Amino acid sequence: MKSVRLRLLTLALLPLVVLMPLLLLLGMSRWTADYDKILIANVQSDLRIAEQYLFRILARTGANVEGVADSAEFLGQLEFGHERVDTYLMEKKKALELDFLYYLPVEETRALASRWPVIDAASTGILSTEIDIFSGEDLTALSDDLAQRASVPLIETVAAVPTRRTVEDRGMVVHTASPVGLGDQRGVLVGGILLNRNLDFIDTINALVYLNATTGGERQGTATLFLEDVRVSTNVRLFEDVRALGTRVSAVVRHEVLTEGKTWLDRAFVVNDWYISGYLPLSDSFGNRVGMLYVGFLEAPFNAAKRAAYITMLAAFLVLLGLSGPIFLRMAKGIFSPLERMIQTMTRVERGDLAARNGNVGSNNEIGQVARHLDTLLDQVQERDQALRSWAGELNTRVEQRTAQLKEANQKLEDTFKQLVMSEKLASIGEITAGVAHEINNPVAVIQGNVDVIRQTLDQRSDDVATELALIDQQVQRIEAIVGKLLQFARPTEFGTFEESIDMAMVTEDCLVLVDHVLSKTNIAVERSFSDAPLVRINPGELQQVIVNIIVNAAHAMGEDGTLTVAIGTETREGIEGACLRVADTGPGIPGDLLDTVFDPFFTTKLAEGTGLGLSISQTLIQRYGGLISATNRDAGGAEFSVWLPAEQL
Predict the structure, then answer these.
(1) φ, ψ (nearest 5 deg) of residue 584
(2) Among 3, 144, 286, 615, which is 20 to 30 Å from 355 by CA?
(3) Model confidence over 351-401: pLDDT tens digits?
(4) Where in the chain is the domain with CATH 3.30.565.10?
(5) Taking the chain, what is the end-to-end CA distance rounded to the nearest angstrom?
(6) Complete DSSP assignment for 215-274
(7) pLDDT averaged over every residue in the chain
């Protein structure tokens, strides 16, 4: 259990321990988000500088070529033929730091104008400068040296789009064309700069962005020019002195920039480390996105700065927390000690030590008053506890006696109630049955008397109807037997029984013969399983009545198809050996809520077909001989009735 000291300290330090970390977490999260936004803003600014420098290269190249095309010196050279022009352009190419510069007379521009929009524009009198992608054949046609410079072996790069290419032999070119026109000398002057492996170009961008006075060179930045997703000019290093030419950008960046045409401003993995990166899509003179311009700086130094800030804030918080704890404990000592003593006293009381007391807690303030008041209350509690214990024992004794008496009376009441209910049912059935039997006996006696009168009246002629009269006699006797059974059920003490020792298997076989007319009308199969069983003492007719009733009920439950299983064997119940007959069917079974009522008088599931007395009478007959009928549902389906009778006592 936590001490009072710890609880009060927790309560006192809760604002410092919980609220302060939450505020720190919120502040650091906000600071981190703002810090990341600043980094993204920086790389966006860097990308704009690089973009402006690239456009400046385009503009300067176009202006240089246009200046040559418009110069009187060049127009003068055109009058001396191609050799003088080629020599002049060779000198100008070197002077202007161009990679190619050539003149196309007007008759030669038509073929190339269809291939290059810049030449097409120049042929109409408009200066045009764009970035274009030259194939290896185009570069070879200009110069073998250009083709070799443009060729970059591809290096397998993690996370890049898979490719089967091994070499990038195309060239990214600053392509410019200026119209030439003076008298009959009309044409196009075409020039350009190959950007593949143009390290001066990329290093200048890097110097402009990351080595200026504003940054002081603190950011470790890189710049790259991509032809599609291949680095063709970069200052990113694979190793210390090896530039990462031929490595490729990740598939995610390629899709975002080249496919979607968006500018990427986010962290990205560049060759071998994470950089805060900016990627700008570049389009050619046809309007197709053909490459990217990249700038970025290492993320690691800034992450280290953030971690250092986190550690500093956490350390400051822990120091503050460490200093605050002892101070709060010292200030709260006057509260802790009395409260802890009271808690110890209450703990002893909870364990049964009612003599525990606080005593003098060394304080006269409110806490001291509470401690003394608690001692007074404990004195009263101890006195009342002794009084309660004195009469609790006596009360428990009386309660136990009364509980035993009530339990015995309740059991007697339940037994009496069950007997009363059964007696009322049987009494009602007895009255009804006796009345029905009496009413039936009167017309039966009249019928028998009239039959005797008929015999006397007809005398010898009665032989002609002897069969019919005998049939009437048989039916009258049957009615008398049925009435006798009803009276025997209703008033069993007034009618004697004719008991004898019988084999239950033989009686069962006779019963199967009697109900054959019922089973023969259906597809019900009968399976017998008779084993040795002791003889029982019962009226055969009554046992036959019980068995026939159970078998007929089973047949009605199955309908047209099913299997009737009849088994006889020895079974011991409550230490008494006896014979048991089991009749099982494959019908729907007995609903669970009706299992306890199937032996009640007038209970039937065959509405308008039965009286509901069959099983009730059968139960009464079997119980008269010390037996028992029970019903249950089988796991495999269907119902099973068992008739158990005690073995005959020899």
Answers:
(1) -120, 145
(2) 3
(3) 777 777 767 666 666 666 676 777 777 777 777 777 787 777 778 888 888
(4) 497-646
(5) 77
(6) TTT-S-EEEEEEETTEEEEE--BSSSS-B-TT-B--HHHHIIIIIT-PPEEEEEEETTEE
(7) 82
